[in-house]
Amino acid sequence: MRTVVPMSGLTRGIxxxxxxxxxxxxxxxxxPSGAVVWAQTSEIEQHHPENPGLxxxxxxxxxxxxxxxxxxxxxxxxxxxxxxxxxxxYDIHQSNDxxxxxxxxxxxxxxxxxxxxxxxPYFLDFINHSGEVLTGPPDIRYxxxxxxxVPPKHPRPE
Length: 158
Known about the structure:
Elements: H1 7-10, H2 16-19, E1 26-27, E2 40-41, E3 54-61, H3 67-82, E4 87-94, E5 101-108, H4 111-117, H5 121-128, E6 139-143
Antiparallel strand pairs: 1-2, 3-5, 3-6, 4-5
Protein backbone atom coordinates (compact mmCIF):
# COMPACT_ATOMS: atom_id res chain seq x y z
CA MET A 1 0.00 0.00 0.00
CA ARG A 2 1.23 3.47 -0.82
CA THR A 3 0.98 6.04 1.99
CA VAL A 4 1.90 9.64 1.24
CA VAL A 5 1.85 12.73 3.41
CA PRO A 6 2.70 15.73 1.21
CA MET A 7 4.95 18.41 2.67
CA SER A 8 1.98 20.79 2.89
CA GLY A 9 0.39 18.37 5.36
CA LEU A 10 3.55 18.29 7.45
CA THR A 11 4.04 22.01 7.82
CA ARG A 12 0.88 22.95 9.67
CA GLY A 13 0.46 26.66 10.21
CA ILE A 14 3.56 27.76 8.36
CA UNK A 15 3.32 30.95 6.36
CA UNK A 16 5.14 29.85 3.23
CA UNK A 17 5.91 33.42 2.22
CA UNK A 18 8.04 33.77 5.35
CA UNK A 19 10.05 30.76 4.22
CA UNK A 20 10.77 32.41 0.88
CA UNK A 21 9.81 29.31 -1.04
CA UNK A 22 10.06 29.68 -4.78
CA UNK A 23 8.62 26.29 -5.67
CA UNK A 24 7.16 23.28 -3.90
CA UNK A 25 6.34 19.75 -4.93
CA UNK A 26 6.10 16.66 -2.76
CA UNK A 27 7.87 13.48 -3.79
CA UNK A 28 5.94 10.35 -2.84
CA UNK A 29 7.64 7.57 -0.89
CA UNK A 30 6.29 4.03 -1.04
CA UNK A 31 6.16 2.59 2.46
CA PRO A 32 4.39 -0.18 4.37
CA SER A 33 0.82 0.47 5.45
CA GLY A 34 0.58 2.54 8.61
CA ALA A 35 3.97 4.24 8.25
CA VAL A 36 4.12 7.95 8.81
CA VAL A 37 5.78 9.53 5.77
CA TRP A 38 8.10 12.51 5.78
CA ALA A 39 7.91 13.39 2.10
CA GLN A 40 10.99 14.87 0.49
CA THR A 41 10.39 18.19 -1.19
CA SER A 42 12.01 19.99 -4.04
CA GLU A 43 11.33 23.30 -2.35
CA ILE A 44 13.90 25.95 -3.18
CA GLU A 45 14.86 27.90 -0.09
CA GLN A 46 15.94 31.52 -0.56
CA HIS A 47 18.76 32.27 1.88
CA HIS A 48 20.14 35.44 3.35
CA PRO A 49 23.32 36.05 1.31
CA GLU A 50 25.62 36.44 4.33
CA ASN A 51 24.18 33.41 6.15
CA PRO A 52 23.38 30.67 3.68
CA GLY A 53 21.92 27.53 5.11
CA LEU A 54 18.72 25.91 6.19
CA UNK A 55 17.49 25.13 9.68
CA UNK A 56 14.87 22.44 10.12
CA UNK A 57 13.07 21.79 13.40
CA UNK A 58 10.77 18.77 13.52
CA UNK A 59 8.48 18.02 16.45
CA UNK A 60 7.34 14.41 16.83
CA UNK A 61 5.12 12.72 19.39
CA UNK A 62 5.50 9.15 20.61
CA UNK A 63 2.65 6.71 20.94
CA UNK A 64 2.04 6.17 24.70
CA UNK A 65 4.55 3.62 25.94
CA UNK A 66 6.89 4.20 22.96
CA UNK A 67 8.72 7.28 24.30
CA UNK A 68 12.00 5.47 24.97
CA UNK A 69 11.88 3.52 21.72
CA UNK A 70 11.25 6.69 19.71
CA UNK A 71 14.20 8.31 21.49
CA UNK A 72 16.41 5.31 20.72
CA UNK A 73 15.49 5.44 17.04
CA UNK A 74 16.00 9.20 16.79
CA UNK A 75 19.38 9.02 18.54
CA UNK A 76 20.48 6.26 16.13
CA UNK A 77 20.16 8.82 13.30
CA UNK A 78 22.60 11.28 14.90
CA UNK A 79 26.04 9.82 14.14
CA UNK A 80 25.46 8.93 10.47
CA UNK A 81 23.63 12.18 9.79
CA UNK A 82 26.44 14.28 11.28
CA UNK A 83 28.83 12.60 8.83
CA UNK A 84 26.75 13.65 5.80
CA UNK A 85 28.11 16.31 3.45
CA UNK A 86 26.39 19.60 4.14
CA UNK A 87 25.29 18.76 7.68
CA UNK A 88 26.22 21.50 10.13
CA UNK A 89 24.53 19.99 13.17
CA TYR A 90 21.89 17.41 13.99
CA ASP A 91 20.59 17.32 17.55
CA ILE A 92 17.79 15.46 19.30
CA HIS A 93 15.85 17.03 22.18
CA GLN A 94 13.20 15.62 24.51
CA SER A 95 10.61 17.88 26.15
CA ASN A 96 11.08 18.54 29.87
CA ASP A 97 7.31 18.77 30.29
CA UNK A 98 6.13 15.90 28.09
CA UNK A 99 8.43 12.90 27.60
CA UNK A 100 6.43 11.85 24.53
CA UNK A 101 7.44 15.03 22.67
CA UNK A 102 10.76 15.08 20.84
CA UNK A 103 12.39 17.68 18.61
CA UNK A 104 14.97 17.22 15.87
CA UNK A 105 17.02 20.41 15.43
CA UNK A 106 19.23 20.40 12.37
CA UNK A 107 21.19 22.82 10.23
CA UNK A 108 22.22 22.19 6.64
CA UNK A 109 24.42 24.04 4.20
CA UNK A 110 21.68 23.97 1.53
CA UNK A 111 18.28 22.50 0.70
CA UNK A 112 19.96 20.00 -1.63
CA UNK A 113 21.91 18.59 1.34
CA UNK A 114 18.71 18.10 3.34
CA UNK A 115 17.04 16.51 0.31
CA UNK A 116 19.98 14.07 0.05
CA UNK A 117 19.60 13.28 3.78
CA UNK A 118 15.96 12.32 3.14
CA UNK A 119 17.19 9.63 0.71
CA UNK A 120 19.75 7.94 3.00
CA PRO A 121 19.03 4.31 3.88
CA TYR A 122 18.96 4.96 7.65
CA PHE A 123 16.51 7.85 7.32
CA LEU A 124 14.27 5.86 4.97
CA ASP A 125 14.36 2.95 7.43
CA PHE A 126 13.25 5.32 10.19
CA ILE A 127 10.41 6.52 7.94
CA ASN A 128 9.31 3.03 6.97
CA HIS A 129 8.90 2.06 10.64
CA SER A 130 7.73 5.40 12.03
CA GLY A 131 4.11 4.29 12.33
CA GLU A 132 5.23 1.93 15.10
CA VAL A 133 6.27 4.79 17.39
CA LEU A 134 4.73 8.09 16.19
CA THR A 135 1.22 9.33 16.86
CA GLY A 136 1.11 11.09 13.48
CA PRO A 137 3.10 13.15 11.01
CA PRO A 138 5.82 15.43 12.38
CA ASP A 139 5.35 19.17 12.63
CA ILE A 140 8.30 20.43 10.55
CA ARG A 141 9.37 24.06 10.42
CA TYR A 142 12.07 25.57 8.19
CA UNK A 143 14.08 28.66 9.06
CA UNK A 144 16.88 30.77 7.62
CA UNK A 145 19.39 32.24 10.08
CA UNK A 146 19.42 36.03 10.10
CA UNK A 147 21.97 36.68 12.85
CA UNK A 148 25.70 36.48 12.24
CA UNK A 149 27.04 32.97 12.74
CA VAL A 150 29.80 32.67 15.35
CA PRO A 151 31.92 29.68 16.38
CA PRO A 152 30.73 27.74 19.43
CA LYS A 153 32.17 28.78 22.79
CA HIS A 154 32.91 25.18 23.71
CA PRO A 155 33.54 22.24 21.38
CA ARG A 156 30.54 19.94 21.14
CA PRO A 157 31.22 16.30 22.10
CA GLU A 158 30.26 13.70 19.51
